[in-house]
Design goal:
mainly beta, three-stranded antiparallel beta sheet, elongated, disordered C terminus, binds zinc ion
Length: 133
């Protein structure tokens, strides 16, 4: 069992023995799948492939945690006296990035991911819905 992740948008799905037939986000007719079509990965595959994050100071107290995966999503680590906040979390953070974040004081709180990173579902009308899991 694995939690498959769409390689196009980065949406992660619930556990399964195989990837979903399509991504509810990228399967929308307004989206673009690319020449290779729908792709899937898992956190274990990303780790085995050497996927790495990049932490980049953006301004005092604000660090971007970059991701060359999917749509190039970037989380923000907001540093504060009361504790750091991870804003707009990304799907995968490698061990080196975790160590760097711990060195910076760790994470006291984090924001909910945007709807595109939640488990999208189709309602009875065929429209996409999102739920935070
Ligand atoms: Zn997708």
């Amino acid at each position: 069992m694995a939690n498959y992740i769409c390689t196009i948008c980065g949406t992660q799905y619930g556990e399964g023995n195989s990837p979903p037939p399509s991504c509810a986000v990228c399967g929308d007719e307004r989206r673009y799948l690319g020449w290779d079509g729908q792709g899937w990965t898992t956190l274990a595959e990303m780790s085995a492939e050497g996927y790495r994050n990049e932490l980049r100071p953006l301004e005092p107290g604000l660090i971007g945690i970059g991701s060359p995966f999917a749509v190039g999503h970037r989380a923000m680590l907001v540093r504060a006296q009361a504790g750091n906040v991870l804003w707009d979390p990304i799907r995968f953070i490698d061990e080196r990035a975790v160590d760097q974040i711990c060195t910076l004081g760790g994470i006291e709180a984090f924001s909910a991911p945007p709807p595109r990173l939640c488990n999208p579902k189709k309602n009875s009308h065929g429209n996409s819905e999102a739920s935070i899991t």
